[in-house]
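Ticket closed. Logging final result for Transposase.
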Amino acid sequence: MEQLPGLVARRGSITTRAVGWAIGQLRREHATVHGIARQLGTSWKTVWRAVEPELERLAADESRFENVTTLGVDEHIWHHVDPRKRGPKELTGMVDLSRDADGKTRARLLDLVPGRSGKAYASWLAERGEAFRQNVKVAALDPFAGYKTAIDDQLEDATAVLDAFHVVKLGTAAVDEVRRRVQQDTLGHRGRTGDPLYGIQTILRAGAENLTEKQRTRLAAAIEADPAHDEVFVAWQCAQQLRSAYHQKDLAEGRQIAEKVVDTFHTCPIPEIARLGRTLRRWRAAFLAYFTTGRSSNGGTEAVNGIIELHRRLARGFRNRDNYRLRMLLAAGGLTP
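Final structure:
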């Protein structure tokens, strides 16, 4: 029997053209392997056996790691079963956040490795080689000390940047903690319908510039209901000040506000705000780096996580971590340089 490797791979049952089409459907149309198998009139296993070697070849191509100047990192959960059966639930994902000629970020997933630790991130960086590490100039991250340690150890010339979203989230969480504490101190129970502070919990999470007149009136009425509520209002103002640093059109003005926040919050008599201030002081350099790196953030990494979650839901979950890695690299653009 004559072999035609250009038409069908050795021992294959699907043409190379069909394999290319299947990969395109998985990449661009959010298709599933089962759906493709149904269209081709074959089985899931047949389709995956044909597609997997090509994905492995693309994943092994080191050229896809070239020209990465901005690197993001984040973790996510890839399964929800017993880790003894399927291994660690957490994976650390590395994302290319480099900007194109127009200054736009084209986020693409570079890799997924088991675990959520600085060691997992540092080991991956070490495997990439000296040329890759020297090329990375900005490293965005969430406030997780393990990742920061890996950056300090492996990316000595890169500037670590604390993600703006997570910084604002820390401020909002501090306000919510103050609200719950004052609620307990004044009424002796958790928030209930009709309680002044419980009624404004969503307002306290919003930006001041986004509040309507009706919401402002509700906020003022809740704060004036008890002198103890002033503590909540002060905490909210602190969170708004932190948030405003990122909303300044002039980065220099934003940095001035951020520096004031770092220098003053830790002295606040409200314990939750003081703790927030101490956290920002520990992360001072990475916090302020946002204003000197052209508003670098980990937003692209979160967008990639959204793509990963979409494909995980479409597949109704995964049992094999290697297959999961290949599918997510394909879906999130990680198999192209």
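The first helix runs from residue 16 to 28. No further action required.
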